[in-house]
């Protein structure tokens, strides 16, 4: 490839339709007589840290890239995919004959991602290439929804009210990415090699074929009534598509506006957690409320292993952990129960659970995962009070009264093969209250 090039670096936005960064990159290319090359980097810093070579998320990304490349091929264009540390990859790209005049990408809000982007931005600046980052994965970000005094919200309900008051059609309209696709680089210029296989990266296929990024109107209409029942298909399963941007959050919010206020509320929670992470990056590995860093966690490895394997003797907890291990998914209501059990029944540090979910969840998102784990532990923004301790038996009776979910994942429940509870609820509750109270006194 020769001549001026604009790179559109895809990360959490693996689609062509309603793509903010691609839209702006194409317009920039049109103005400067350049071509746009979509780029994805399999970040080896991330890949090498994954504990399994059979990671479902890597499989998902590879499948999504193949689909995306097929869409680009229909327009005579192609996707360039590189493997390596982003800074090194951009160093190589800048050394090629083509003149990279700009890089467009979508905002990321995680501390490690912000540090990565800053290093790339500095490299580009040294070569005279511009860096442009735009909002895409949320409706409102950073400082767009603040209190009247200009400080960030730390309680969800007033945040959601301000969020709703600010919402207008402007924030939900799609970016007409397709309007300028004539300025995409020709397929032959995308570079040799095509899309790397999983084997090329040292990974194995999982055999999963992922559902498309869509949700039925009927499910959304029933969402408020069915979303807490794990034994039925009452949730959207769109978490992974929102995480990797294979579907547009704006299109989903427009659909929710007309069909399900409860579902729209879940999208507001996503924005809330991303906003919190951007304002309070320390919350990734420190308690949002500093007093909770004084907790005397028990952190018994054998008990952590029983929680992970789904052999706690509490069937709802065990069903959730087994579903997670088998599928990479866990129903949201059950996520709350399993997290509460780890933190409050076993008094194991929420960071242990957060890291394990980070390894297992298909839809792992640092902002939401950290926010929800700190909520369960009582240490986070707008968290459940420390004395709110879920009774797993009552949770099962309320949300899985026919034991459909439990029977699916814990078939030996009710037989001698199923273990008794590893800790008695009343005693665990009493112990939890004592430990929390002691920490908050210090």
Question: What would you note in describing this structure?
Answer:
The chain is α/β, with parallel strands linked by helices and 442 residues long. The chain folds into three domains: 1-135, Rossmann fold; 137-175 and 216-279, Serine Threonine Protein Phosphatase 5, Tetratricopeptide repeat; 282-441, DNA Cyclobutane Dipyrimidine Photolyase, subunit A, domain 3 (Orthogonal Bundle). The protein has helices spanning 20-32, 44-47, 56-73, 86-94, 111-126, 156-166, 169-172, 217-226, 239-244, 249-259, 261-279, 301-309, 315-327, 332-345, 350-360, 366-377, 392-399, 404-409, 425-441; strands spanning 4-10, 35-43, 80-84, 99-106, 130-134. Helix 5 (111-126) links the parallel strand 4 (99-106) and strand 5 (130-134). The longest helix has 19 residues, at 261-279.
Name some characteristics of this structure.
442 residues, alpha/beta, Rossmann fold, Serine Threonine Protein Phosphatase 5, Tetratricopeptide repeat, DNA Cyclobutane Dipyrimidine Photolyase, subunit A, domain 3, 3 domains, five-stranded parallel beta sheet, 19 helices, 48% helix, Cryptochrome/DNA_photolyase_1
Query: What class do helices, strands and sheet pairing give?
Result: alpha/beta
Number of helices: 19
Percent of residues in beta strands: 5-15%
Topology, number of strands? 5
Helix content: 40-55%
Question: In terms of per-residue confidence, which ranges show pLDDT below 50 for 5 or more consecutive residues?
Answer: none
Which architecture of the largest domain would the CATH scheme give at its second level?
Orthogonal Bundle
Termini Cα gap: 64 Å
CATH uppermost class of the largest domain:
Mainly Alpha
Q: CATH topology of the largest domain, anyone?
A: DNA Cyclobutane Dipyrimidine Photolyase, subunit A, domain 3
- Topology as H/E string? EHEHHEHEHEHHHHHHHHHHHHHH
Kindly state the mean pLDDT as a whole number? 96
- Tally of individual domains: 3
Largest beta sheet: strand ordering = 3-2-1-4-5
């Amino acid at each position: 490839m020769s001549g001026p090039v604009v790179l559109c670096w895809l990360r959490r936005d693996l689609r062509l339709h309603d793509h903010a960064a691609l839209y702006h990159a194409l317009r920039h290319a049109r103005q400067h007589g350049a071509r746009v090359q979509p780029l994805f980097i399999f970040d080896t810093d991330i890949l090498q840290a994954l504990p399994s070579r059979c990671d479902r998320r890597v499989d998902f990304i590879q499948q999504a890239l193949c689909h995306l490349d097929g869409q680009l091929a229909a327009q005579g264009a192609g996707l360039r995919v590189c493997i390596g540390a982003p800074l090194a990859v951009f160093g190589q790209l800048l050394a090629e004959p083509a003149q990279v005049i700009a890089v467009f990408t979508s905002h990321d809000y995680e501390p490690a991602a912000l540090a990565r982007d800053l290093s790339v931005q500095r490299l580009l600046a040294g070569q005279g290439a511009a860096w442009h980052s735009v909002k895409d994965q949320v409706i409102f970000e950073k400082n767009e929804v603040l209190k009247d005094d200009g400080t960030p919200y730390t309680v969800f309900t007033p945040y959601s009210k301000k969020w709703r008051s600010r919402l207008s059609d402007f924030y939900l309209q799609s970016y007409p990415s397709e309007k300028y696709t004539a300025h995409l680089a020709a397929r032959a210029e995308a570079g040799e090699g095509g899309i790397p296989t999983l084997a090329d990266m040292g990974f194995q296929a999982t055999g999963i074929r992922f559902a498309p990024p869509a949700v039925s109107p009927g499910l959304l209409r029933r969402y408020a009534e069915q979303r807490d029942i794990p034994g039925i298909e009452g949730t959207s399963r769109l978490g992974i598509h929102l995480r990797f941007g294979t579907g547009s959050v704006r299109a989903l919010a427009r659909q929710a506006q007309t069909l399900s206020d409860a579902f729209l509320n879940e999208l507001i929670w996503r924005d809330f957690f991303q906003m919190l992470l951007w304002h309070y990056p320390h919350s990734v590995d420190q308690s949002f409320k500093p007093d909770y860093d004084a907790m005397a966690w028990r952190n018994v490895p054998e008990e952590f292993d029983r929680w992970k394997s789904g052999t706690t003797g509490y069937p709802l907890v065990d069903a959730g952990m087994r579903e997670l291990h088998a599928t990479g998914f866990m129903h949201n209501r059950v996520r709350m129960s399993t997290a509460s059990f780890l933190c409050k029944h076993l008094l194991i540090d929420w960071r242990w659970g957060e890291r394990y979910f980070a390894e297992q969840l298909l839809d792992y998102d640092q902002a939401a995962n950290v926010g929800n784990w700190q909520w369960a532990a009582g240490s986070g923004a707008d968290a459940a009070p420390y004395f709110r301790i879920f009774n797993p038996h009552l949770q099962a009776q309320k949300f899985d009264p026919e034991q459909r979910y439990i029977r699916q994942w814990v078939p030996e429940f009710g037989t001698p093969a199923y273990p008794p509870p590893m800790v008695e609820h009343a005693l665990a509750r009493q112990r939890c209250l004592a430990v929390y109270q002691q920490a908050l006194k210090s």
